[in-house]
Structure formats: C-alpha cells, structure tokens
C-alpha cells in the first residue's frame, strides 16, 4: 500500500459554506496553508479564520463582475501539475506556481434558482457556474496527487481518514474523484434540462441523473443486487424518499415498486374522492387487490381490505389522508408490509410500532404533489421513456353505444371502475361499484382469462354485481367477456372501443340488455 500523501496547501472556493469552518479549523491545526476566493475568504474571516485570498496570487484577479475568478493558468497549473513528472516539476518551479494538494469546491445553486417562480432568465444564466466545475475537474483528473471535496457530508470522512492515515490514500482520492465527476455530471444535466424547458418549452425530461444513488438490501430476490437512483428533489413533486423512513428498517426494492404502484392506484381514483372524501388502495406484487372510497379513512381501509382479504395479506396499503388511531385499529389484526400516507398521528405510530416488520412511509404531498410527467423502463441496451397516463378523463367525451342507457348512479360505478383499471397491468379487468373494487383480472395473455379471474374473485367474496360495472383497459375483440359478465349478473360495461368488431360487441350488449360506454381512450399498462 502506498504511503499516504500529506497536504501542504488547500484551495477552497465554495458557494455552500455549511460546516466549512469545521474543516478549515482542522486544516489550520495541521499547518496546511489555505488559499481562498473572495466570498469564501470573507466568510472565513468573519469566523476569525485567516486565509490567503486568491486575488493576492500574482496577477490572478476577479473580473467581469465575478464571472472570472479562478480561470487562470496559475491556479490550474498548481492543481494539474503531475508531481511524478520531472518536466512538470521544472515548469512549476520556473513559473513560481504553488502546488495545491486539496481542492474544496461546490457550485452556484442553479437547481434551486431554477425552481423559484419569480426568477428571471438572466438570474438563471448567472447561476451557471464556470470556474467551480473547472477546478473540480482539474483536481479530480489529478487525483493521483490531489484530493477533491465538494459536499459538507464528505468533510467528516476526510478528517477521520486524514487523522487515521496521517494523509490521504490513493483509494480515498480515487473515491473522491469519482464522486466529483458524478457531481459535475449531475450539475450539467440539470442545466441542460432546465434550459431545454426554458428555450424550447419542452417539459419532458430528456436527461436522467443516475449519480444520486443508494444501495438497497437486495433486488427482487436475495441473490440480486439493487440500488435506487433518485432524481433531484423538487418540493412540489411526490417522491418516494428512500433516505428518510419512520422505521428502523429501510425500504426494499420490492417495497419501493409496490409503494409506487400504490401511490399510482390511489391517484388514479382522483376526484372520485368527492363521493366520500377518503380513499384507500392495497397493492400486492404490483397489482391493486383492493380499492375504496368512504366518508372516513378507516372505513375506506376496511372496504379496500374487503375487496380481497386473502390477497391483502402482506400487501402495501396507501391512504389519501392522515393515518389516525382509528385507522391503526382497522388494520390491527392484519399483516401489512408497508403503509403509505400523507402522515401518521402519534397515537397511530404508537400502535403500529408494535408490528415489528411494518414500514411506514409518510409523504406529506401524497395527494397534492405533482407526479413525474415521464416514466422510464430499462431494456437490454437502452431505456424507454413515455409520458405518464394522466388520470383525468372527461365523461362528457364518452359515448353511450348501447340501446340501454346507464343511469347517473350507474355511470358513477363505470367511472370508478375505469379509473382503477388504469392501475392494473394488462390485460386488465376491474369489477367495481361506485366506491368499491370487487374483482381484478390482470396480466393474462387473453382478456377473457382476466375477466374470468375478476368475476371468480368477486363471486367468491359474495359481492352483489347487479349494480357493478366491468371496466377494461383495452377494447373487447369478442363478445365472450360480455357474455361472462351477463352470466354473473353484471350488466354495466365500460371500455375504450376501437375494435374492427365494435358493432358486433354492441350487438351483443343490446341482445343481453346491457349498458355499454366507449371512453375512446385505451389504458394499457405493461
């Protein structure tokens, strides 16, 4: 193992000065000379820490209202010089350059400025950092001799490592360099994305930052490794915060996928909440097995569980409002993996904490926050992206195609079924009343197989299907699903339409005396 390298000189130029004084005091205590740019130097001076202002180094001056502070060959020569190269050492000595062993730098807050509603384009452009990325990349490139830090979270690790090793090891410098390039990469991606939206009006995410990541316990199975890659947090968007859990145990890969599906199912119910005010959805292996709306949250939970009590075992529960003590009582005898809610009362937390393996995921803006507009799927050799299947539909654009016309009550049942079917994998069938999911058929190669599963489940649980609606995410190519529904006493059908056999399907509905609506919008979910 190589000998650790001691640091004689550090260059510090940071916008975010969090915990900076702690780091600088440590450096000074080890006799390390500190060079700093104007703003950082002034900040340290206010804390009684004297440093060498970079402006005093030869002819290095701050010009163009601060646009150029550190873009100078004297600085970058001191960072980039290869100390193992005699020619470089001769040049450094001949030009009187000061070798720099540590660079501490972070960038202007472009991302936070971009989210401000009242900011101007000029303010946005001025917060594109130039000198910071140049110094960071120079130091990271020359990591054989230079250590680079860009975040206050690294300072304590650096201090502990330096004290233990009496310098920095090559492995430590390599890790810091890798993190620095990831930081620079993410920063440039954010700029490119924001300017794409600013200049061309495209709101669709074009760039994906995969550098902000955290390892998970394992993937779908214990022999698979897994990580979560987080986009830059935006305060008004719903985010599954894997870094902040109200539990001793962190979310697993499968927990995260099911939590995502639960949130989507809950949001698919949308303004159907106006019928009762509270909604609940239960997910098992990515498929909704329960969904309901009610006048109280605990009643919505009970109804959602009743959709399929057997499948709800070990499932993921999502609620649209505060999870209270009464909600905790409603699930007291149930085994659940995870509960997602806008928040949890103290009494509920006290009760739920007795369930050893239960995870709680509070997302304050669960029902009000924006959802990512673009979804991504990995494939062999690439990534697929598409705009999200937005939940809002306008029933006034639907067509009643049958001779039998549904009543206003029956249309509400159709609407509920049509909303929840968007959250079910194709081929998807949902059987539902105006406020309660009765049966689900999902992921089957043929639509009739999904329909059979949905009706078997609904009949097994003894739901009254006389006022229930059958929703399909795609058109019916044959009349068999309608025949099946009729045999089970269900006479309300809602589907996209669009088949070359539409008229044949309409004829079947008329012959059976069923009411059928075409939405003219497909909702496949693969």
3D architecture notes:
The protein is α/β, with parallel strands linked by helices and 526 residues long. The protein folds into 3 domains: 192 residues, Methylglyoxal synthase-like domain (Rossmann fold, 3-Layer(aba) Sandwich); 148 residues, Cytidine Deaminase, domain 2; 124 residues, Cytidine Deaminase, domain 2, CATH 3.40.140.20. The strands form 5 sheets. Strands 15-20-19-18-16-17 form a 6-stranded mixed β-sheet, sandwiched between helices. The protein has a 5-stranded parallel β-sheet with strand order 3-2-1-4-5, sandwiched between helices. The longest helix has 31 residues. The chain is elongated, with a radius of gyration of 30 Å.
Shape: elongated
Mean pLDDT: 87
Give the class from helix and strand content and strand pairing: alpha/beta
* Rg over alpha carbons: 30 Å
């Amino acid at each position: 193992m190589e000998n650790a390298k001691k640091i004689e000189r550090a260059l510090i130029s940071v916008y975010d000065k969090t915990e900076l004084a702690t780091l600088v005091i440590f450096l000074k205590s080890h006799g390390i000379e500190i060079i700093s740019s104007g703003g950082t130097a002034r900040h340290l001076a206010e804390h009684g820490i004297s440093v060498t202002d970079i402006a005093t180094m030869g002819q290095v001056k701050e010009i163009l209202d601060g646009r150029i502070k550190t873009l100078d060959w004297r600085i970058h020569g001191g960072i980039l010089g290869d100390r193992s190269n005699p020619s470089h050492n001769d040049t450094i000595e001949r030009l009187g350059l000061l070798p720099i062993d540590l660079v501490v730098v972070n960038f202007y807050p472009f991302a936070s400025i971009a989210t401000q509603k009242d900011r101007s384009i000029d303010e946005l452009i001025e917060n594109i950092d130039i000198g910071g990325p140049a110094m960071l990349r120079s130091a990271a490139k020359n990591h054989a001799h230079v250590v680079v830090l860009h975040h206050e979270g690294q300072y304590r690790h650096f201090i502990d490592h330096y004290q233990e090793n009496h310098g920095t090891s090559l492995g430590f410098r390599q890790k810091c360099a890798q993190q620095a390039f990831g930081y620079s990469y993410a920063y440039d991606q954010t700029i490119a994305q924001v300017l794409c939206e600013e200049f061309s009006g495209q709101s669709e995410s074009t760039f994906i930052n995969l550098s902000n990541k955290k390892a998970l316990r394992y993937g779908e199975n214990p022999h698979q490794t897994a990580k979560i890659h987080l986009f830059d947090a935006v305060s008004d968007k719903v985010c599954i915060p894997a870094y902040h859990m109200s539990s001793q145990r962190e979310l697993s890969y499968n927990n995260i996928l099911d939590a995502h599906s639960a949130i989507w199912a809950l949001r698919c119910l949308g303004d159907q909440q106006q019928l009762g005010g509270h909604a609940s959805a239960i997910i098992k292996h990515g498929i909704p097995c329960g969904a309901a709306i009610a006048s109280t949250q605990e009643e919505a939970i009970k109804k959602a569980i009743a959709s399929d009590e057997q499948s709800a075992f070990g499932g993921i529960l999502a609620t649209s409002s505060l999870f209270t003590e009464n909600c905790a009582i409603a699930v007291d005898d149930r085994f659940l993996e995870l509960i997602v809610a806008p928040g949890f009362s103290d009494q509920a937390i006290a009760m739920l904490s007795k369930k050893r393996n239960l995870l709680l995921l509070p997302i304050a803006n669960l029902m009000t926050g924006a959802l990512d507009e673009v979804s991504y799927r990995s494939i062999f050799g690439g990534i697929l992206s598409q705009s999200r299947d937005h939940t809002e539909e306008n029933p006034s654009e639907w067509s009643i195609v049958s001779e039998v016309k549904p009543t206003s009550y029956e249309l509400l049942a159709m609407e509920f079924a049509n909303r929840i079917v968007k959250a079910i994998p194709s081929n998807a069938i949902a059987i539902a009343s105006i406020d309660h999911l009765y049966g689900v058929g999902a992921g089957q190669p043929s639509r009739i197989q999904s329909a059979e599963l949905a009706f078997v489940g609904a009949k097994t649980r003894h739901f009254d299907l006389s006022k229930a609606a059958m929703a399909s995410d795609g058109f019916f190519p044959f009349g068999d699903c309608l025949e099946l529904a009729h045999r089970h006493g269900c006479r309300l059908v809602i589907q996209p339409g669009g088949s070359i056999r539409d008229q044949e399907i309409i004829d079947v509905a008329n012959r059976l005396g069923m009411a059928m609506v075409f939405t003219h919008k497909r909702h496949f979910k693969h």
